[in-house]
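Co-fold these.
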Amino acid sequence: MPTEHIVRSYDEELRRLRDMAARMGGLAERQVADATRALVRRDTSLAAEVVQRDVQIDQLEREIEAFCVRLLALRQPMAADLRVIVAAMKLSNDLERIGDYAANAAKRAIVLASLPSIGSLNGFERMAHLVQENLKAAMDAFVNNDAEAAERVWAADEPVDAIYNGIFRELLTFMMEDPRNITAATHMLFIAKNLERIGDHTTNIAERIHYAVRGDSLPEDRPKADESAYAVVRPAGG
Amino acid sequence: MPTEHIVRSYDEELRRLRDMAARMGGLAERQVADATRALVRRDTSLAAEVVQRDVQIDQLEREIEAFCVRLLALRQPMAADLRVIVAAMKLSNDLERIGDYAANAAKRAIVLASLPSIGSLNGFERMAHLVQENLKAAMDAFVNNDAEAAERVWAADEPVDAIYNGIFRELLTFMMEDPRNITAATHMLFIAKNLERIGDHTTNIAERIHYAVRGDSLPEDRPKADESAYAVVRPAGG
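Predicted complex below.
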């Protein structure tokens, strides 16, 4: 209904864009939560739901992009409004990737449910909880146009990296102890990596929101704690 | 020099945008090639160069975004021009991720150079060669505004996924044979995954170019062969 949009005020349209992005963010959060729950509870039907639901996120990304392109063409926005639209396009891209990582984790959760369980999944739950909280805070910052809140999210990824490093080392140890753990541990490694990358994309989103509100960029390097995953772990007998 | 840009013709500016994107694409290609060369030759100084050069890609992404925002504000482009600008913004994001994956692979190549080598790296070389070729073809399609060429790239990722699956299975077997292989094989698994994701981003780039030229989207599902990596590999003794 194009007429509807022409009569609608520009402010209303920008509000609608923020709402679409918030809805996409909420769905991405839910995907991360459900993928993790499916992993922990070995719930393959929940995992299958997550995999299927991924198309909804892809669809929202396309809707946001189409809406942004129309706003750009019809409203020819300037300054802050233009930045909000550019940020919405870019962060929808990050949310799409987050959805992709969650769906990938859910696929691996299905495989893992058919294998003997190894180790504790507490680290995964803590990581997922943190990235969800950050993602929610980031999307709230977008809806409220709050640069300081975005900056707090941007700086909050360090604990996520630290948990990832712990999981990485623990899984390598399990693999070395018993080769029968290797397949499961490999899938778990990739899930942990997916969660870590979801954290990175959340940081990107926070940067884009900060830029949208303030018009300037955050410093290039954010606090990070992921270097130890490049360290060498040796088997006990090595 | 803002005056320079005001007198410059709009067509020239769009040409410049394509050139910036092509330069960024060329740099991303080189990063993939050098990261792989560093891995194969166990060349840690080349790997360190790749890691350091990543900031250049990040810098180009910011320049492209700033240039696009200025074009949107000053030129208020419509239709096809608007789509080219949106595509440039989005594909610069994919190129930034590609650079990130290449730098991550280079970091792991440094670790691997300190570990005994396992297996052949032929698969990695073939994968890297394919993704580079596709990336080059995609960026050429952007410079030449060629939707058919973009569509060919979009459909060409299947062999990349197939090689990834082969590497995945081989590395799991190495891990099961000898726990001393586990650390090296894990880093190699992540490098293979990075190359596979570089292939995915190249596919995204091809989609964006197709959209820029034609204004419509490619079908949602492209040919893919990556499902067998979710299969269960069991140790000989399991």
